[in-house]
Write a structure and sequence with these properties.
single chain, 91 residues, mainly alpha, 5 helices, globular
Length: 91
């Protein structure tokens, strides 16, 4: 997993998020999707944390939100992403 791929993945998540989401919710959704993707690769948690920290630096992301997302399980990440998408789609 390289930094260019992660930045691209993050950016595509931002660009495809519902337009009605706030900037904060859009960034949270994108970071949630990145963490979900990394968890599905079964990388060690230390490596996932390192990759997320590199992404935070590259995107000037919110470290508090990222730290909270890193503590969530796969199921909790899925649920959060679903709630944010539903919020953006007005459901």
């Amino acid at each position: 997993m390289n930094d260019d791929f992660l930045r691209g993945y993050y950016q595509s998540a931002v660009e495809t998020a519902p337009a009605s989401l706030s900037a904060y919710d859009t960034a949270t959704l994108a970071m949630t999707m990145v963490v979900q993707h990394l968890r599905h690769t079964n990388l060690p948690e230390e490596r996932i944390t390192d990759l997320v920290n590199h992404l935070l630096f590259a995107t000037a992301g919110d470290s508090t939100t990222a730290a909270r997302l890193l503590e969530l399980t796969k199921a909790e990440l899925e649920s959060l992403a679903a709630r944010l998408m539903a919020k953006g789609l007005g459901k």
